[in-house]
């Protein structure tokens, strides 16, 4: 049991580290802000950053309402990743294959450009941990839901969640039918 828990914690820390490293505008990926890289410290209010400006307007509106309310609790939402160009997404996928050793394992963390909701502007990765904890508790009130159990930073808009609560999470993107195109 303890060994299994250690494996899960190690995988989570590795994923958070990979996600954080892959989202920085200064990352070794070589893709700039115009393609969706996010500079350190970006928030959901930074309209001049394409990763924020190119998000679905309804998602952005819900995020901004939630972020404003979270500030009252002393919590600030930082954008780790938002909208991404297909080229940037493909690059992230290639790097994930290299990091995780196979297409199947990479698919647990990074979608293809054809299936990524970041490319369509319908997903955002939020940090730091206190922001994701706040969204975990209050996100449904704004229609913001964590979709994947293995990605506590990844949120999408689910308007019905305001009345019904968030839908059950998928274990990871490989269990999401939208990723099987």
TrEMBL record:
According to the entry, every stretch annotated as the D-alanyl-D-alanine carboxypeptidase-like core domain falls at 54-155
May I ask which residue range the UniProt record assigns to the signal sequence?
none
The cross-references to Gene3D superfamilies, in alphabetical order and at most eight, read: 3.30.1380.10
Q: Which InterPro entries match?
A: DD-CPase-like, VanY-like_core_dom, Zn_M74/Hedgehog-like
Q: What is this protein called?
A: M15 family metallopeptidase
Q: Which organism is it from?
A: Nonomuraea recticatena
The beginning of the lineage is: Bacteria, Bacillati, Actinomycetota, Actinomycetes, Streptosporangiales
């Amino acid at each position: 049991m303890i060994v299994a828990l250690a494996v899960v914690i190690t995988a989570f820390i590795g994923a958070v580290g990979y996600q954080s490293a892959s989202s920085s505008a200064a990352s070794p990926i070589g893709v700039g802000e115009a393609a969706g890289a996010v500079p350190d410290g970006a928030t959901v209010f930074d309209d001049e950053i394409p990763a924020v400006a190119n998000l679905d307007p309804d998602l952005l509106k819900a995020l901004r309402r939630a972020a404003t309310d979270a500030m009252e609790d002393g919590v600030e939402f930082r954008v780790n990743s938002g909208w991404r160009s297909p080229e940037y997404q493909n690059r992230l996928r290639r790097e994930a294959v290299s990091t995780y050793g196979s297409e199947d394992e990479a698919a647990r963390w990074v979608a293809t450009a054809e299936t990524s909701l970041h490319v369509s502007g319908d997903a955002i990765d939020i940090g730091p941990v206190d922001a994701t904890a706040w969204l975990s508790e209050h996100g449904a009130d704004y229609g913001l839901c964590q979709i994947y159990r293995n990605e506590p930073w990844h949120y999408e808009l689910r308007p019905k969640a305001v009345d019904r609560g968030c839908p059950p999470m998928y274990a990871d993107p490989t269990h999401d039918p939208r990723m099987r195109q």
